[in-house]
Design goal:
five-stranded antiparallel sheet, elongated, four-stranded antiparallel sheet, 2 domains, mainly beta
């Protein structure tokens, strides 16, 4: 499919973001048709790789594949678990248990000629911090919209519990390139640092919530999930 060019003072230039003004508001044009010598031809906004779409706000989303893209790498991380308050008072103060990080999955797909097709997903919510117990993070996922893929499932990391121990890391399934479990948080009387977020190709997931130090200091909530689409 040809890109859309325009002649400016005798020089042909590619439009990167063609737009049209509708009632005073400019709208980007993703694709359209133009009649060239009696033949209708499809045009789309010029694609300049890489194009990266990032989702890190808890809740659902719909991804639209850009016109002109050839391939996409999809990475998904589950949300992290929260950390507990610290333990002990006075000279006996110490760190509480910390949260685990979410699971991870990565897939790659050919998307040539699939511009405008959709992929849907959900970003997990980070686990709330707690006193003697903290909440787990929730699952992030990426699945078929109008474009078919194998669902990537990235469960959230576990919330910590004093004195039982740090939260477990979430698992990861469905990626056709890689799947990995998140990292567990520290037990009580450890460092108080949450499980490290899994390092992906184009991003890193949220780490588990750190624990508080001393019984009067609360832990930290876990970060939300993350999904990245990397188009070339």
């Amino acid at each position: 499919m040809p890109s859309w060019n325009v002649n400016v003072a005798g020089v042909w230039k590619t439009l990167v973001s063609p737009a049209v003004n509708v009632a005073g508001t400019w709208h980007n044009i993703l694709q359209g048709w133009v009649n060239v010598s009696g033949t209708w031809q499809l045009f789309f906004a010029a694609f300049t790789p890489p194009v990266v779409h990032t989702y890190n706000t808890a809740g659902g989303f719909t991804e639209v594949i850009p016109f002109g893209a050839s391939n996409v790498v999809i990475e998904a991380w589950g949300a992290a678990g929260g950390g507990c308050q610290g333990v002990g008072t006075g000279c006996a103060q110490d760190n509480g248990a910390s949260g685990g990080s979410g699971g991870y999955g990565r897939s790659t797909y050919s998307v040539g000629g699939q511009g405008g097709q959709t992929i849907v997903g959900t970003i997990g919510t980070g686990g709330a911090n707690g006193g003697t117990t903290a909440d787990s993070g929730t699952r992030s996922s990426v699945s078929s919209g109008t474009f078919a893929i194998t669902t990537i499932s990235a469960p959230g990391g576990g919330g910590a519990a004093n004195p039982t121990g740090g939260g477990a890391g979430g698992s990861g399934t469905g990626g056709n390139q890689a799947n990995a479990a998140g990292n567990a948080g520290q037990n009580s009387h450890g460092t108080g640092v949450g499980g490290a977020g899994v390092v992906g190709v184009h991003g890193t997931g949220a780490g588990g919530g750190n624990a508080g130090f001393g019984a009067t200091h609360p832990g930290i909530s876990g970060g939300p999930g993350l999904v990245i689409f990397y188009y070339t």
